[in-house]
């Protein structure tokens, strides 16, 4: 026999985990109905077999996500409606984090046995947005669905380089739209024309499509999370994202608000030999930096990297770079980390893009040296370019003197802190801005982040960073969403 019941749950503690919990529990019991936030708790309507509904009601307080959070439960009978599926009912109240998970795109929504199961992150905004879908980037992808003063970031999806993760992306978008009852009229995405999110967006009909620059989205996400509207100095340091000049940016200082940005400074461009191969084999970036700064004279240096890679491998790469074959220019700070890591002796083949940065951070923690490798600031137009040649001159000299690798790493980190602090001061002189946002996956390096934060604050800056939203590309979709709302 089919029955339908309304269950009013009065709560002593936070509502957020409860709605995610109810969605999962109803899915496990294969019940139809809805859940919505109400003052002081949640109201649930469930419909299904009498046995399943009774089991749901019995489990509800016993398996509560926060023990002791239930003050009272009231249950009453309702007429059977025959509806299918379980969803979050639209209300005027604040919505919670929701448990939607594509389950590798093969398991059903809210399958709690799936190890990839996770809850979207809710970000409360200080403005009202029209229904917008932000598609995120191709790596560490999340999507963001927003309406009114709420934005929901999905669980992180795999890098969108294969059919399985692309199917997961599609399923995640479908799940969020269904469970949140939001149909976006605007879709926001990055600028790289070959990326999967861009190609998917161009297939959608009946929506406005808005492209957003990758690093502007990083800073806008940080601004939205911290409820900032006035222009900020934004340091966006990451492995790379498509720039407005068609090159791969990633060592950026922006003057930005949620509407637009100016590029105030960046790391000097360097070839990225082999494109994506340079991410997997960081020795390529070391060769690229040294060849750019010293020509082939760097081959006379006595460093272990040359013995490990071999003369033939290095010469072959240099010849390829001379022909400009598959060597896009990049200003990525992540690739600078790769080059330094390769030179100090970390592994030359990687399984993940952040592996070398993590390794360098661990080495830096082993040292107490407070010297800093020098880097220059060269005026270019209305901004500056960060010149790394002095860094590599000092680093090569220390390697030849067999300075401990922990000291090498710490001096590199210290040098970044010094040059970024100097840069912030220069930008403040020209703009009067004293608020700084830090975003991008390089700032997942806690040692660098904390030292830069303290240096900036001691110079009178107010520093903002991420709390709920990832600093890496997992936060791009939120930034895309708030920028698109102003276009």
Question: Describe it for me?
Answer:
With 487 residues, the chain is an alpha/beta fold. The protein has three domains: 2-88, Alpha-Beta Plaits; 121-211, 2-Layer Sandwich (Nucleotidyltransferase, domain 5), CATH 3.30.420; 270-469, ATPase, nucleotide binding domain (Nucleotidyltransferase, domain 5, 2-Layer Sandwich). It has 15 helices and 18 strands. The chain has helices at residues 16-28, 50-62, 163-180, 196-202, 214-225, 277-280, 283-294, 304-309, 311-322, 333-344, 355-365, 389-400, 405-431, 446-458, 476-484; strands at residues 2-11, 32-38, 41-49, 70-78, 86-88, 121-134, 144-153, 186-189, 208-211, 232-242, 248-256, 261-267, 270-271, 329-330, 376-380, 383-387, 435-439, 462-464. The strands form four sheets. A seven-stranded mixed sheet has the order 15-16-12-11-10-17-18, sandwiched between helices. Strand 10 and strand 11 form a beta hairpin. It is elongated, with a radius of gyration of 25 Å.
SSE diagram, text form:
Elements lengths: L1 E10 L4 H13 L3 E7 L2 E9 H13 L7 E9 L7 E3 L32 E14 L9 E10 L9 H18 L5 E4 L6 H7 L5 E4 L2 H12 L6 E11 L5 E9 L4 E7 L2 E2 L5 H4 L2 H12 L9 H6 L1 H12 L6 E2 L2 H12 L10 H11 L10 E5 L2 E5 L1 H12 L4 H27 L3 E5 L6 H13 L3 E3 L11 H9 L3
Parallel strand pairs: 2-5, 6-8, 8-9, 10-17, 12-16, 17-18
Antiparallel strand pairs: 1-3, 1-4, 2-3, 6-7, 10-11, 11-12, 13-14, 15-16
Helix pairs in contact: 5-15, 7-9, 7-10, 10-11, 11-13, 12-13, 13-14
